[in-house]
């Protein structure tokens, strides 16, 4: 009797969780399904369009610059991530492993910038970019994200786990601080570096406000910016199939990256979100 | 560290003094050289812009004219006499008021369910997390398409014998529909934070309560909730700050913050003032207001957090 009640509860839990899966995935499945439809079947409610068509994809890559936007976004995300990896890691290492005058103050200063809304910085950034003639350029796009307080915080958390005896031993052996950082700390921190790289890539891929403001020429847009203009124009011509194809290509690379690296991503978010 | 250095230097005999100095110099050189560029960068891209925003908020400036006359608090009072600005503040707080409880309740429910099952945890966790990493712009357009007058949701409603709804075209529904899409996107993140929090609660508390005959609801009420309190408050701050900054969803789902300004948020208003009307002074004043709201929000929550953790 008790056992069967327990079983009922267990089944109910799984049913609830499965309902959650449906709510979570349905919008994304509907997005993908719509992108393969033919215009005359746009309002069909089937999740498996027949006949399926790649027409929308050839449209967004041939008639709209989605290819350019994807490569712009990828290049910007990779470049920013490279910069973040170098600088955030070095700063995180110094803050975690050394004591020196001003350490607390510097850490506090960096962390407190996390509280400042990006929107407050965007107007001055825009003015700065205008002054330096960087609006509508790749350099201007990268300008605000080259270092992140979040990354420094994350790397400091990771770097605290480095055994300081090991670093001291290297010092005794006569290695200078630069070699210790590059040849001992970094190799040990490979998993942390990977986590930072993935998180940075994801957030840069989806970055919207700053690119939306600093970029003005169509073929310099990043994917989210291009997507907004493209979709706003097409929605009036009932271009939902093409819009959903655009949304699908915006979302698929990240879902792929997430499924491959999910352990690292979840670990990084748990570590930075909890402390 | 110091002890170790001293020992090494002692072993080095007569070289002790010069070696220690050069070592210390090298060390500080490494520390401050590493920090120099990053600190300069944060100074130029974070600190100076904040100061500059405050400065411009007391000036009238249209970005083109060389002069920026001082106008005192005129930009601020101008904002508060502007009906649309006041509306955008109310809307922003509505997003916060709907978003925080929605996201936290859904995230907690998902986390508790996940904790209570023996198998497939990894699968559910992965699936629930997917929306969090998807592009807001892309997802917003998907929701727009689902919620169109003749979109999938309305077809489903009609098939169930219910009335079709205007959703994003209705001044009464649009804001809540957008908030729902934001909750949908953040449940996985929230769940993850709660799962980590739940894992930190010692299992023996539950065992002791079970021996004392406490049922599941009482265990939740008297163990889970109080011990999870710091995590709940922390999450409320993070979520609150993100709902205060609602912008991308507005540009993608209702374009201009319509219908009838019913979804115009503070950040959308700032964008409009700065980059459409080029009223840099008013726009900066609005960013200062946003900054103060976020700051107050954080302070209140930190205070609450300190108090709750004590017992």
Automatic annotation (TrEMBL), chain B:
<dbReference type="InterPro" id="IPR000515">
    <property type="entry name" value="MetI-like"/>
</dbReference>
<comment type="similarity">
    <text>Belongs to the binding-protein-dependent transport system permease family.</text>
</comment>
<dbReference type="GO" id="GO:0055085">
    <property type="term" value="P:transmembrane transport"/>
</dbReference>
<feature type="domain" description="ABC transmembrane type-1">
    <location>
        <begin position="89"/>
        <end position="301"/>
    </location>
</feature>
<feature type="transmembrane region" description="Helical">
    <location>
        <begin position="174"/>
        <end position="195"/>
    </location>
</feature>
<feature type="transmembrane region" description="Helical">
    <location>
        <begin position="126"/>
        <end position="147"/>
    </location>
</feature>
<dbReference type="GO" id="GO:0005886">
    <property type="term" value="C:plasma membrane"/>
</dbReference>
<keyword id="KW-0813">Transport</keyword>
<keyword id="KW-1133">Transmembrane helix</keyword>
<keyword id="KW-0472">Membrane</keyword>
<feature type="transmembrane region" description="Helical">
    <location>
        <begin position="93"/>
        <end position="114"/>
    </location>
</feature>
<dbReference type="Pfam" id="PF00528">
    <property type="entry name" value="BPD_transp_1"/>
</dbReference>
<dbReference type="InterPro" id="IPR051393">
    <property type="entry name" value="ABC_transporter_permease"/>
</dbReference>
<feature type="transmembrane region" description="Helical">
    <location>
        <begin position="227"/>
        <end position="244"/>
    </location>
</feature>
<keyword id="KW-1003">Cell membrane</keyword>
<dbReference type="InterPro" id="IPR035906">
    <property type="entry name" value="MetI-like_sf"/>
</dbReference>
<protein>
    <submittedName>
        <fullName>Sugar ABC transporter permease</fullName>
    </submittedName>
</protein>
<feature type="transmembrane region" description="Helical">
    <location>
        <begin position="29"/>
        <end position="55"/>
    </location>
</feature>
<feature type="transmembrane region" description="Helical">
    <location>
        <begin position="283"/>
        <end position="302"/>
    </location>
</feature>
<keyword id="KW-0812">Transmembrane</keyword>
């Amino acid at each position: 009797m008790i056992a069967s009640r327990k079983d009922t509860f267990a089944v109910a839990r799984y049913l609830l969780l499965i309902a959650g899966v449906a709510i979570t995935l349905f919008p994304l499945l509907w997005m993908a399904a719509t992108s393969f439809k033919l215009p005359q079947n746009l309002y069909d409610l089937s999740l498996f369009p027949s006949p399926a068509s790649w027409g929308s994809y050839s449209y967004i890559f041939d008639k709209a610059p989605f290819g350019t936007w994807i490569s712009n976004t990828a290049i910007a995300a990779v470049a920013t991530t490279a910069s973040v990896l170098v600088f955030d890691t070095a700063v995180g290492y110094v803050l975690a492993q050394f004591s020196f005058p001003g350490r607390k103050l510097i850490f506090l200063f960096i962390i407190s910038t996390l509280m400042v809304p990006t929107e407050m910085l965007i107007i001055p950034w825009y003015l700065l970019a205008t002054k330096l003639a960087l609006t509508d350029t790749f350099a201007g796009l990268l300008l605000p994200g080259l270092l992140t307080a979040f990354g420094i915080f994350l790397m400091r958390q990771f770097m605290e786990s480095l055994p300081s005896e090991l670093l001291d031993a290297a010092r005794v052996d006569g290695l200078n601080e630069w070699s210790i950082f590059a040849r001992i700390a970094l190799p040990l921190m490979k998993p942390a570096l990977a986590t930072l790289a993935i998180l940075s890539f994801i957030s840069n891929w989806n970055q919207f406000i700053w690119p939306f403001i600093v970029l003005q020429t169509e073929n310099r847009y990043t994917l989210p910016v291009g997507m907004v203009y493209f979709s706003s124009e097409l929605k009036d011509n009932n271009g939902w199939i093409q819009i959903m194809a655009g949304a699908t290509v915006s979302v698929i690379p990240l879902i792929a990256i997430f499924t491959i690296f999910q352990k690292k991503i979840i670990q990084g978010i748990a570590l930075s979100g909890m402390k | 560290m110091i002890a170790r250095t001293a020992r090494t230097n002692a072993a080095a005999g007569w070289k002790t003094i010069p070696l220690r100095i050069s070592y210390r110099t090298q060390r500080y050189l490494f520390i401050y050289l590493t920090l120099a560029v990053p600190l300069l960068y944060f100074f130029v891209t974070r600190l100076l812009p904040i100061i500059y925003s405050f400065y411009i908020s007391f000036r009238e400036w249209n970005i083109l004219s060389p002069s920026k006359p001082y106008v005192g608090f005129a930009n601020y009072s101008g904002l508060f006499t502007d009906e649309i600005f006041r509306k955008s503040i109310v809307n922003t707080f509505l997003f916060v008021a709907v978003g925080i409880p929605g996201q936290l309740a859904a995230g907690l429910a998902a986390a508790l369910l996940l904790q209570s099952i023996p198998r497939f945890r990894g699968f559910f966790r992965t699936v629930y997390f997917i929306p969090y990493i998807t592009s807001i712009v892309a997802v917003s357009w998907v929701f727009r398409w689902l919620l169109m007058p003749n979109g999938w949701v309305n077809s489903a409603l009609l098939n169930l014998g219910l009335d079709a709804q205007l959703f994003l075209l209705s001044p009464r529904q649009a804001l809540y529909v957008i908030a729902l899409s934001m909750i949908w996107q953040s449940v996985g993140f929230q769940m993850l934070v709660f799962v980590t929090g739940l894992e930190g609660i010692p299992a023996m508390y539950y065992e002791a309560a079970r021996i004392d005959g406490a049922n599941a609801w009482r265990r939740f009420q008297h163990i889970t909730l109080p011990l999870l309190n710091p995590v709940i408050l922390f999450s409320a701050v993070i979520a609150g700050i993100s709902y205060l900054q609602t912008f991308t969803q507005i540009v993608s789902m209702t374009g201009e913050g319509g219908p009838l300004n019913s979804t115009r948020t503070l950040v959308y208003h700032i964008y409009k003032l700065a980059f459409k009307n080029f009223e840099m002074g008013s726009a900066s004043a609005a960013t200062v207001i946003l900054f103060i709201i976020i700051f107050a929000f954080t302070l209140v929550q930190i205070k609450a957090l300190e108090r709750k953790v004590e017992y």
